[in-house]
Design brief:
The longest helix is centred in the C-terminal third of the chain and has 25 residues. The protein contains 13 helices and twelve strands. β5, α6 and β6 form a beta-alpha-beta unit. The relative contact order is 0.16. It is 42% helix and 13% strand. It is of the alpha/beta class.
Length: 381
Amino acid sequence: MIYLDYAATAPLRPEIAERMLELNSTPLGNPSSLHRAGRKARMVLEGARERCASLLGAKVEEIVFCSGATEADNLAIVGSLSHADSTVRSLISSPVEHAAVHETVKRQEQLGKEVHWLPCDSGGLVELERLESRLEQSGPSLVSVMIANNEVGTRQPVFEIGKLCRQHGSLFLADGVQDVKTAQALITEGAVDLVTLSGHKMGGLHGGLLYVRQGVPVNPLIVGGSQEDGRRAGTSEVLRAESLAMALERTLAETGEEVHRCRRVLEEKLKKLPHALRLGPEVEQNRADHISSWIFGDLKAEPILVQLDMKQVCASSGSACSSHSVEPSRVVKEMGYSDEQAMGLVRFSFGWQSTKEEAQRAAEVVGEVVRKMFSKEKKKR
């Protein structure tokens, strides 16, 4: 099997699986308990927090462990808007955000919050001039723009966005799920206030992390105990925290050269196919290294993916959160494409286990499938 759906979830790294088994070999207690099993759990939990903070260039108290990046995005947006000490007056976001942000912002809009949507160009990039103009008009705001788009791989100008937010006294939330290294750089350089990450996208277990810059007030979504410094109640998920710390360490240590090479190999072959159109920006620096998304004429994504799966190639039609939907991709439509084109989005994404040989073979299979489907369509006409 050739797995090309890392943007949805990455295979579990074997060393992380081994560590999880090791931790479970003896009773792992509740980290809030005083007995030795609880103390062991507490040691693992806080050790993971310290490592995440060190790796990201953050303070220990700025790290909040969550069930996943969706919860982290919700906590960042709703928590910072609802706090009594918050100076935020409005929400500014882009229409090509992940559903975890897009739907949360829409919900706040329905509840009466002032919301402004930034337009994007045909490559999926937000317009900085429009953001600056909006910040001048709206006053202190929460700006939520993802670092790299999960469907088409567009890498946003997040450092420029962070600078504009600083100049206008606004908060900046960056969804870093698809680009951990840029997330780290934003935190290290003090260019961001809130960042969300996901463990399973890096080869760990499901679990999320929210970075909250010291001094940024955030109300908890889940209330009860005082876990996570009062920002997220509930028994701390020790294994997820340890897994995330390990996955983060390994992801940041990887050069990404092989992933980039895989994408280039695939694209060199796919661009020769009839009516093939690659989505996203043309400029390389505006693209995530691991994502390559395509439309093949008027072919629908679903039958392509079924045929690829039958030939042992796993790809997707975009966001895993909407992969069972028959609706056209919202992201592709916002980039100016038609409903019909948006129904044809096929995404290939690479990760820690990908090889150039797999990319070459996958490209050959895609070529076989697409040419065969075009031939059938031609005969029908």
